[in-house]
Structure formats: structure tokens, C-alpha cells
Amino acid sequence: MIVVTRKLTKAYGAVMALDSCSLGVQTGEVFGLLGPNGAGKTTLIRLLLGFLRPTAGDASVAGLDCRRQSVQVRKQVSYLPAEAALFPHMRATDVLRFFCEVRPGGRFQRYLDCAQRLELAELNRRVSYMSTGMKQKLALAAALAADVPLYILDEPTSNLDPNVRATVLAMVADLKRAGRTVMFSSHVLPEVEEACDRVVILRAGQLVHTQVVAELRSQHRILAELQGPMPPVPAGVRDGTQVVCQGSRVTIETAGELSPLLGWLATLPLADIRIEPVGLRAVYDRFHVGQASGLPLTDQPHEPAVSHEIAEAAP
Amino acid sequence: MNRAVLQKCIVEARLLFAACAIGLFAFCWVRIYIISRVDLETFSQIVEKLWDKWADYWPVSLSQLLSYSGRIAVTFDEPIVVLCVSVFAIARGSDVVSGELNRGTMELLLAQPVSRWQVLLSQALVTVAGIVLLSLTAWLGTLAGIMTNTVQEEVPRPELRIPGIGLSIPLSLKKPEKIRVPMGSKVEPQNFIPGAVNLGALGICLAGISSLASAFDRYRWRTIGLVVGFYVVETILKIAGVAISEAAWLKKLSLFSAYEPQKFIATAVHDAANTWSLVLRDSQGTMLDVGPLGYNLILLGIGLGCYAAAAVVFQKRDLPAPL
Fold first, then answer.
1. Domain spans, chain A
2. Does the pLDDT at position A308 exceed 70?
3. Among A171, A244, A252, B19, which residue has the least CB neighbours within 10 Å?
């Protein structure tokens, strides 16, 4: 494990920004951090970098304590903050040179290559005269060109056009192929799904779910219109199956193969049936849909979600 | 020490430094040019009329003030000179922590393998070096003024002195001839070094105080506001301490009481042995006052103490997320 946190907690008075977060990131994996604003993603990253002192618990990167050995930790890490603010008086080339020289053993050509790959033109322009997208590309080039074991990218594709977004994801894939570890925080779920091997979902400072992305590919979701009462799930397919009824709409999710369910599905009073891969969106929604609108969230996030309507429908 | 961080600090400070240095050099030179143009006799007449009311506010004697060295020494008390060094010190000092936080650049800076101590030390070194160079510039401006300007003086008329009775008989009835002589023949440039050193010590003191305020804060405008407020209060304390005899103790609360360049220049001119004394003593060895070096060490001690406190505060605090 290159990153380990044990009951890592950060409180601001009564507000728990991060609450007993324990996780581990494997060397060489692309690890996603998901959650709405204020869920604790950035707090977790800032604790890893030693910007914040934990209220409780501890964290380590490459076996180094994030608080006491912060400088050594940052030798192992390249960090791209969300909305990175660069030194406004510097020209782009000066920024790249600064980030190259501030790290022992940095190669400037690598930084220039990264900038070129990200289509960053006009390296002579001052940061204060750059557009938001250009600044983001420059910050990305500075972060991705560093030769380190761990990259922490906080919303790396924000403010970028679709082509450059694809380039960034390709660069992340290259890093993975080179055996580097990437921690990736984003609100763009398809990107996370594409780039990450594993994701954790944070909610109100708590780690509420860990998802291996490859497992999602075998999961499906059936959306349909109910034409009559919903019968109980047969014992043979109950494992790994979740049924959620909302009015006349029913959503059936399967954790494994779809074929065992097909016979049962044919017996159900359903119309307008649509079958789609579950995807990260559905997993994310289990924990966060309704949070903004005040609707109730799943109480037991690690258990399969079953709606109250189904509980009433079951015998 | 990280070279890239140090270089970044130099780049950030260089424009302000250049502006302050040009301003200081030019002002010091121009002021001596003006001194060289205003006749000493005329100046004496003006000052002597006001001296009864001014004496309490002036740190040197009338005779010193009416000398060329005294008039030049006033340069170091001119608001523009003090302001140039203060602006540089407060601007650079306030940038140490709250400036970087305010701009959001601290996040990326400290994401690199540099310690907070290195960041603060780099800023402090550049600021202190800048202040030392500004003080040197003020002295160089003074030196340039002394070397390039001339003063007018009367050539004594030829006289016949009659020995024994002390009588002098003028040999010419013409008006005394006025000639211009180099300012350098009237004053010694090295006597103004204590004034420049005192200016530098004040700058380092202000930079330290600004850095400490910056280490606590996250908004640079608030840091500058706090330090400027403190500056004004300290100035008022000194003025009140001087103006109100019952409240003379107020002077001790003002760090500007340790900023007395005219007094230290006068010491260099009239009491060279005590130019760099820690304390001034009378012939019996009783302590009369803190010496020029003592005052400078007080200012430097406050400044460096504040820098040390800033390092501790910065080391221990959480870095707030960029605004």
C-alpha cells in the first residue's frame, strides 16, 4: 500500500470535515475519490500532504508519516490542487522551470513535453494573462511531468475542452502503465469510471462505500414501468439483486450475470423495459441522490439498497 | 535552502525594490542639492526663530542642526525615506504567508518538497537583504549628493592684524567674495553610516512584525491594515511622549524611539568613540543612555524575534484551502 489512512479525522469545532477515514491505496492503481462538495475529499488530500494537522488518526504515504515527515512525503507526491493558482507574475515557461528546479532531479524537457502534449501554446505568456483553461493545462503539465511514485489530482479535468480531457485521461493511463499510483478526485463520473481501478465514495466526511470499478462492468440495471403489484424476489436470484420501486417506476439492479434473472423478469408485470450497465452514476446516486433536495439517503450504505416500498410489497 | 524558492522570492521583490531604491537614491541626492542651494545663514535665521518651540521635538542641539552634517542628517528622518523602507518591509513581510494564501499560491508551493521553514526563510532573507540594500542605497544617495554638490561660502577679506592689541584692519573695501566649495569639504560621508544602519534596523523590525502578522492571517490586505495601524499607533505614542512631558513614558512604548538617525549621526560627528557604543556613559562610568548600537540591537531584536515567532506560528498552523 502506498497510501494508508487509519481512522483519519479532521474536525473544525463541531464540524467533522473527515470522520475516521480508513483506507488504503495499492501501489500502481488509479484510485478515485468521489463525493459532493464538502464531502471531505480535499480535506483527505490536504491531510496527506501535511497541510492540515489531523484531529485524530494518522496517515502515511510510502511508509512516511504525513504529519511528521511531510517534506519527505511531498518528495514522493505530485499534487494538482482543484483550481490551481499559479504564480501570476511568471511566464508559463518560468512556472515549468520553477516546478522542475524545486524538485531534485527534475528534467525540464519532460515538463516541456508534457505542456506540448496538453496543447499548451504560448509558453511565453504571463500567467496573469492566461485563460482559466490555459492555467489548468499549465498546472497539469507541472504536476504530471514530475517523476514521482504518487500523483494526487484534484479535479484535473475541470475547465478543459473534451480533447484535452481525453489527453489527461490518457496521461493518467500512461502513469498507471509506468507503475505509478494516481489518486483522482473528480465530479465527472464517466471520467472516474474510465480512469480508475477503484473508487471510494465520501459523504459528510465519512467513507461510505468502496467500489472496484471492474465489478461494475458485470452489473446491470433494469428500468421499467410497473403494470401491477411487484411480487417478491425469488430466493434463487435474491443474492445481489436490489429492487427499488418509486411510484410506477421500478429499478432492478444485479450484482452479477444478468441471465439468471431473465426468466423471472419475463413473469413480471413490466412495460417499457430498458436494460443498461449499472455504472458509477447509479452507485454514486445510492449515497448522494436527494442529499441536496433533502430526500432521505440510504441508511446502510454498505448493504444492498432496498426501498421501503419493496419492504411493504414483500410477504 | 531551495534555490528555486529563493529565486522566486527575488523575482517577486525586485520591482518594488527597484522602485524604492530609485526613490531613495534620488530623494537623498536631491535633498542634498537643495541643502547646497539654501544659504546656511538664511536657514539659521529661520530655525533660530522657531527653536524655542522646536527644541523639544528635535533630537539634536541647535548647533548640530545648523551644521551641514546636521542638515544632511535630517534626510534620514524625512517621511519619504522612512516610507520607502517601511513600504518595502511591510509589503514583503506581509507577503510571507497571508500573501501566498490570499493568492492561492501557497497550495502549490507547499505541495513541493520544501518545508514551511524554507519558504519563510527564503522570504525573510530576500526581505532583509532588500532592506540592507535600501539602507545602503540611501547612504549612497547621500554620498553622491555630498560628492556632486557644492556649497557657497564667503572668502574672508584680507586683513591686517595688529599684534598685541588684537585689532584687525580690512585691506579691501569690496564686499566679501562668495565662492562655491565642494560639500565634501564640509562633511564626512562616513558619519552618515549610523543613520543608514538605523534605517535598516527599523526596516528589519517592521518586516519581522509584518511577517508575524502574516503568519497568523490568510488575507494580505488585513495583514497590511493591521501593521499600518500598529505603525500609526507607534508614531502617535512617540509624538505624544515628546509633546506631553507628563506622558514621556509613552516614548518607551514606541519602537520609533529607537529610530534616532540624527542623534546617531551627531554622535558620529562629535563623539566618534561612541559611534557604535552599546550604552553611553559619563566620565564616572554611569550609564546615561542606550548607545546607537544598543538602539539598533533593540530594533533588530524585535524584528528577528518576530521572525522566529512567525516561523513557529506558520509551522504549527493549518493551511486554509485557497480562497
1. 220-277
2. no
3. B19
B187 C-beta neighbours (distance < 10 Å), count: 23
Residues A197, A201, A203: CA angle, nearest 5 degrees: 170
Check CB contact of A104 with chain B, cutoff 8 Å.
Answer: yes
Distances (CA, A) of A50 to A58, A155, A218, A223, B316: 11, 19, 39, 45, 11
Judged by a CB distance cut-off of 8 A, whether residue B111 touches chain A is: yes
Query: Where do runs of H (alpha helix) occur along B182-291?
Result: 193-216, 220-243, 261-270
Do B266 and B72 contact (CB within 8 A), yes or no? no
- State whether residue B18 sits within 8 Å of chain A by CB: no
Angle formed at CA A232 by CA A228 and CA A233, multiple of 5 degrees = 120
- Mean pLDDT of the B257-270 span: 95
In chain B, % of residues over pLDDT 90:
72
**Which chain B residues have a beta carbon less than 8 Å from that of A52?**
318-319
What is the structure's pLDDT at A290? 55
Name residue, grid cell 522566529.
B308
The type of residue at A283 is V
Helices (H) and strands (E) in chain B, counts: 12, 6
Going by C-alpha positions, the residue among B123, B133, B131 that lies closest to residue B11 is B123
**Which residue is listed with cell 509506468?**
A178
Question: Of B94, B1, B317, B97, whose CA–CA distance to A51 is shortest?
Answer: B317
- DSSP result, B58-69: -SS-HHHHTSHH
Closest CA to A5 of A16, A20, A17, A15: A20
pLDDT value at residue A171: 95
Average pLDDT, chain B: 92
Q: Does A74 touch chain B (CB under 8 A)?
A: yes
Strands A198-203, A30-34: pairing is parallel
Average confidence score pLDDT of chain A: 86
- The phi, psi pair for A87, rounded to 5°, reads -70, 115
Quick: pLDDT tens for A215-265. 877 788 888 998 888 888 888 888 878 888 888 899 888 877 788 888 888
Identify whether the C-beta of residue B98 lies closer than 8 Å to the C-beta of residue B319. no
pLDDT at A299: 40
Q: What is the CA radius of gyration of chain A?
A: 22
Nine cell digits for residue A21: 477515514
Contact A102 B4 (CB under 8 A): yes
**Alpha helices in A145-217, H assignment, sequence order:** 162-177, 189-195, 213-216
Task: State how far the Cα of A51 lies from the Cα of B108, in Å rounded to an integer.
Answer: 11
Q: Do the Cβ atoms of B155 and B177 come closer than 8 Å?
A: yes
Nearest to A35 by CA among A290, A208, A159: A208
The pLDDT value given to residue A298: 43
